Protein: DNA-binding response regulator
Organism: Limnoglobus roseus
Amino acid sequence: MAKQRIFLVDDHAVVREGLKALINSQPGMTVVGEAADGLPACEQVVVLRPDVVVMDVSMPGMTGSQATKRMRQECPTARVLALTVHEDKGYIRQLLAAGAAGYVLKRAAPEDLIHAIRVVAGGGVYLDPSMAGKVVGGFVGQPTNGGVANGELSDREAEVALSTAAGYSNKEIAAKLELSIKTVETYRARAMEKLGLQSRSALVRYAVQQGWLQEG
């Protein structure tokens, strides 16, 4: 089986070396390139065509959102996973709207980063559990199809809603989050009720409209 090809972007060489050692030690993963800031990263990603770009968004020059948007335009097969110290939900929503497939806080455990890379490489959307509810709270208050928003999503409800919109089945979400299928169904039902949505297709349409998922 081919290894997942990872590209690293961080302006600190020590951080890049640490990430490289961590990722290369994982079965099925290999680091194929690295860059210290956004512009050369965009240029190399077009050439190397990695599966996932793990990118620090606080770099000199090009902003994380700008780099993400350019990478998605020039190499749409590369999935961008933002690595950030920022916990401001507006900043994170901006990254997702630019095309990032997810984000991990720099204070996260190494195993969480590896898990996030696998989720993103598999076509999913990953939101750091400590921030998921706050970020997806942007859904709430703007219901569609005549629904009525009914409170802010919990972190688990947010994770399940985003994973559902990204195309994961209940069984796959249960495995990813280490929950029972029945528990996933409960979280999904609560999230749908709070969002005022009646079906998976309605959730997907709304997620695309809000910029959480990118069509195509």
The beta strands are 4-9, 29-35, 52-56, 79-84, 102-105, 126-127.
